[in-house]
Amino acid sequence: MDTNKPMPVIGSLQTGIQIIDTLIEQDRPLKFTEIQELTGITKSNLYKYLNTLTMLGLLYRDKKKGTFSLGSKLIEYGNAAIGSENVISRVTPYLKDISRHTQLTALLSVWTHDGPVIANIWSASYGLNIGAQIGTKLPLLSSAGKMMAAFQQSPDVNEWKISELKNLTDDKKERFERELDTIRNTYFSYAGEPLVDHVSSFSVPILNYKKELVGAITVVGFNQLIPEHPETDISQFVLKNAFELSESFGWH
């Protein structure tokens, strides 16, 4: 059997995904002419693709502005892929309360097969750019990444850690492992500027009855607003909410 033989594919499906990928890459609503220019799809075919994708809920068309953006159906698919729909619905009211209380952005991240991703965001009113959106994969050295590494135990996590740490010196790897021990004891992780300059974050865990990690709540804001230790009022407020959530999943 020739294992190098190309697998048969459906070209039109690839083209439809290309349109979605283009909107993701541009990270903003696009007009028809912009999509046509970026994808190179002929106008007659592009009309058909956009109409089909919009009808299926994979794209949303703003009739007033004449722009296309990602549709709500993609969020459903994303939630199903990471198996977190129940977690998201349970955590969202807490994210809202944390954001309102702290005047900072609160987000939920969950583990997938190749690292943590953002599953939901409740933004502060001043519109801080945190450099991420729902579906963004987070690096190991982010506060959520550290929380996953500290509490999530599986072969996938070990492989991810090895891959993410491969460029660090042995001394830095040892310091990182010591930091994970502290995180397990305090239920608190901090990271300075993991994605965007002048923006830092701290994370706390959501645990279940097996003391396994369900997800992590992360608070994001400008460096001077984010506490680096669990003893502050903001840290304690978020930890209290995380413990309450954990108890709802059976944690004691």
Largest sheet: 5 strands, antiparallel
CATH superfamily annotation of the largest domain: GAF domain
- Amino- and carboxy-terminal Cα gap: 55 Å
Instruction: Report the CATH architecture of the largest domain.
Output: 2-Layer Sandwich
Count of helical segments? Answer: 9
Question: β content, as a range?
Answer: 15-25%
As for the CATH topology of the largest domain, it is: Beta-Lactamase
> Taking strands numbered 1, 2, ... along the chain, how are they ordered across the largest sheet?
5-4-8-7-6
Mean pLDDT: 88
Q: What's the helix-strand series?
A: HEHHEEHHEEHHHEEEH
- The tally of beta strands, per DSSP, is 8
Q: Label the structural class.
A: alpha+beta
Roughly what percent helix? Answer: 40-55%
What is the number of domains? Answer: 2
Low-confidence stretches: none
Shape: globular
Task: Give the C-level CATH assignment of the largest domain.
Answer: Alpha Beta
Radius of gyration: 21 Å
